[in-house]
Design a protein that fits this description.
about 425 residues; mainly alpha; globular; transmembrane helix; cell membrane; TRAP transporter large permease protein
């Protein structure tokens, strides 16, 4: 059996046996080295794991994870929900608009879908249940809406993409994710509002409208978070990695001083949680470095890319196949693992067909976002169903409705690259050819 097949086969077998993704990646890379390279190459194991994580931009990942936890526990979601309700007012489907809008704003603080799903579900689910929305519908909508966090900057997945793909400007990626993220949110609202009006959920006369000005005042600290992060990046005041430090400092200010829902003891616990989550992420990245090095040295990734190219020379056909592959992977794996496993394979295709790397990165992110609320794994849906105290299989019908809606937005961005590329180009970032 060829080293390529042994490497890929051992990785897939490890996943099927239930091994963690990080261990499966490291084992696959190790098998590839033993099968196809001189024994002395085993000495690169330690060097490659270190080199995979010893990258300055990766510092932003644990810091943005900490930022998301701080804003989640600071009570930001409750303030944003009240402010959104004061704008939307009482109407059929009003709470669905509030849920999507708050998820989009929260995505501009944490970059993590599961964190946003937890924060918004804790606040929105009781209100939506009281207004007559079925729990499976509400849990599915919040899970789908919070998946836009992977598109709205600062996105942890886009940070990793900018590191894995050479020459990609993270600021351009952040800017490129804004309009597709908003489009994804709007696409979710279409079926949500339709069903809310069809089934007469949320009686306008029974819903209280919070006063606007007090709600705005309470929400202002939260609303300023995305402005500070994106404004600082645009002005050149700080780099994306420095933006993560600023975001943590601002989150502490909001949680401890302005909202006063956090104490120094709470912060210690949050830092512990962030360290554990970051450790898992970095462990995956470290062992994925072995897999990537072995696959590149053996030529495995190029061989897989050549096999895909042999299926068709039509770029649109292969782009569709890649999107299907990523969607299936998104149902089973987390975003970080998908980027680390699939990018080395699809990178030769991107270069062969001249796909814009910024646009392609956003397409991958949108596809992975859909996977975050698509069973069987559906990490966001797992979070919201646990909070709603319902079984995940009860949400499958509603989840598939929202999957179809977001697929429409994905196809639009595929057909009209300007949806993603117009803003970074106008901001003066290098985006390459359309």
């Amino acid at each position: 059996m060829s080293p390529d097949l042994l490497m890929i086969g051992s990785f897939l077998l490890a996943l099927l046996l239930g091994m963690p993704v990080a261990i499966a990646l490291g084992l696959g890379g190790l098998v590839g080295i033993v099968a196809g390279l001189p024994p002395a190459m085993l000495g690169t194991f330690g060097t490659n794991t270190y080199n995979s994580v010893a990258k300055y931009p990766l510092i932003a990942i644990p810091l943005f994870i900490l930022t998301g936890l701080i804003f989640e526990r600071a009570g930001v979601a409750a303030a944003l929900v009240r402010f959104a309700q004061s704008i939307i007012g009482p109407r059929h489907g009003g709470l669905t608009v509030v849920a999507v809008l708050v998820c989009l704003i929260m995505g501009g603080m944490s970059g993590s879908g599961p964190a946003d799903a937890a924060a918004v579900a804790m606040v929105m689910l009781p209100s939506m249940q009281k207004a007559g929305y079925p729990k499976p519908f509400s849990a599915s909508l919040i899970a789908a809406s919070s998946s836009t966090a992977i598109l709205i900057p600062p996105s942890i997945a886009l940070i990793l993409y900018s590191i894995v793909v050479p020459g990609v400007d993270l600021r351009a990626l952040f800017a490129a994710g804004i309009f597709p993220g908003i489009l994804a949110g709007v696409s979710l609202l279409a079926p949500a509002l339709y069903f809310a009006k069809k089934y007469r959920w949320e009686d306008p006369e029974a819903v209280e409208r919070p006063p606007f000005w007090p709600s705005l005042k309470a929400a202002l600290p939260a609303l300023f978070a995305p402005v500070i992060i994106l404004g600082g990046l645009r002005s050149g005041l700080f780099t994306p990695t420095e933006a993560a430090v600023v975001a943590v400092a601002y989150g502490v200010l909001v949680g401890c001083v302005l909202y006063r829902n956090l104490s120094l003891r709470n912060l210690w616990g949050l830092m512990t949680d962030a360290a554990v989550t970051s450790g898992v992420v970095m462990f995956i990245i470290a062992l994925a470095g072995i897999f990537a090095w072995a696959g590149t040295t053996l030529g495995t990734f190029q061989h897989l890319a050549d096999a895909l190219l042999s299926l068709s020379e039509n770029g649109w056909v292969l782009l569709g196949l890649v999107m299907i592959l990523v969607l299936i992977a998104g149902m089973l794996l987390d975003a970080i693992s998908i980027y680390l496993i699939l990018i080395p394979i699809v990178l030769p295709l991107m270069n062969h067909f001249g796909w814009n790397p910024i646009w392609f990165g956003i397409l991958l992110a949108m596809n992975i976002a859909i996977g975050q609320f698509t069973p069987p794994v559906a990490v966001n849906l797992m979070v919201t169903t646990r909070i709603a105290n319902i079984r995940l299989e009860h949400t499958i019908g509603w989840a598939l409705v929202f999957v179809a809606a977001m697929l429409v937005s994905l196809v639009l961005v595929m057909l009209v690259p300007g949806i993603a590329l117009w803003l970074p180009e106008k901001l003066g970032y290098v985006v390459g050819p359309w």
